[in-house]
Structure formats: structure tokens, C-alpha cells
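Hey, resending since the last one bounced:
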Amino acid sequence: MKSNFFKARVESLYYLFNPNNKTAKVTYKNEKKWENAEYVIGDLTIPSTILFGGIFYDVTEIGDNAFYGCDQLRYVTVPDSVIEIGRNAFDDCRKLEIVFLPDTLSIIGEQAFFGCSSLHSINIPRGLSAIE
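The C-alpha cells again:
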């Protein structure tokens, strides 16, 4: 069965869209996982929904390596729609200081915040079931 998933950039972020269930995952551009580093700088509030092609998609996941190497990223707010943060999602974000996570978050993937040497504030959501 052919996959209907497609990838596109909306504003400063790349998403992998699933038209079957109208969800989107924050991802990176192509094969080079550090490509978002040039687009993501300073403070970032990830949207809970994305309008693309006249359709609204719920942002439910921050994918593996999505923000890998975004060393100019300082603050991140993750919306209530996100239930999973993938492996190495914020790996090597050396200037990342504060992360606000929603209570709806269920899973934080392996080494999601590895190399975040400036990180000094992160809340642990009540609904969290796994930190790999």
C-alpha cells in the first residue's frame, strides 16, 4: 500500500503530514538532520495546528532529530497537541535553556535533550508514561 505522507516547510519548520488522520510531525528537511539549524533561532513556540493546502493538521509529535544541532535555539514551548518527543529531538541544542512541555505528553525519546548543556529548566508532565 502506497504511503500518502508528504513533507513540507511551513514558516520556519518542516513537517511530515499524514493526510489520512490529519496529523503532522515536526521533522527536518531531508537526509541531513541538522538542516533545521539555519531556520530555528531564539524562541520557538511550536503550533498545535498547521494549515496546509486548505486543510488543518494537528501537530502530535516532534520527530527523531527534528531540532538536532539547532544551537541558536534558546526557549521552546511544546503545545498540548503533542504526545511524543522523538529520539534525539533536541540533541546538541547547546544554547537551549528552557523547555515548556504539556501535560498531554506521553513519551520522551532516548537522548531527546542530549548535549543541551545550557538547559536549566524543564517541567516533567503529569501524563508522562516513558522517558527512554
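Residues 6-47+54-131 form a domain with the Leucine-rich repeat, LRR (right-handed beta-alpha superhelix) fold (CATH 3.80.10.10).

Sorry for the duplicate.
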